[in-house]
Amino acid sequence: VKTHLQAQTLSAVAVGHQHNHENISRAFESIYKQHGVAGLWRGVTGAVPRVAVGSAAQLATFASAKDWVCERQWFGEGSWAAVLAGGMVSGVAVAVTMTPFDVVSTRLYNQPVDADGTGKLYRGFLDCILQISSKEGLLGLYKGIGAVYLRLGPHTVLSLFFWDELRKM
């Protein structure tokens, strides 16, 4: 529903498939009536790996980056600056690992579908990756990485900063 509404615009400037929902409740209603509960879960095959890969990258790079800046004595062990530096590095890793999954999820969510709910553009997660890679190159999987970092970077820094502080307690 979020992707349908965010992609929706005037036909003069529209890019990609337009679903033309009036509002959020009509979007839920329309998707449910046309495709049932399964229609509300379309694209989840891209979202689940996105979260798994992003979380793994976030936690692994945070600890390593924080230790690395402390070993170089850029910041003192246990300092808030070391935590913030680790969080910033982790934010970059999260953006780099999650962006391809964001692109695939968005394409799967937003593609037009047949009456039975089958996508008209992609057969699934792997087909979507292969089509993007072959038609747009590997960098096609990184469309919007700047926007992804602007959203995930601060979130990662703050989440890890508060997690680290709470862990010390």
From TrEMBL:
InterPro entries: MCP_dom_sf (IPR023395), MCP_transmembrane (IPR018108), Mito_Carrier_Antiporter (IPR051508). Keywords: Membrane, Mitochondrion, Mitochondrion inner membrane, Repeat, Transmembrane, Transmembrane helix, Transport. One of its GO terms (cellular component) is mitochondrial inner membrane. SUPFAM superfamilies: Mitochondrial carrier. It is found in: Mitochondrion inner membrane. Its main location: mitochondrion. It is a multi-pass membrane protein. The keyword Repeat applies. Pfam families: Mito_carr. Solcar repeats lie at residues 1-68, 78-169. Belongs to the mitochondrial carrier (TC 2.A.29) family. This is Solute carrier family 25 member 34. It comes from Rynchops niger (Black skimmer). The lineage of its organism: Eukaryota, Metazoa, Chordata, Craniata, Vertebrata. The gene is Slc25a34.
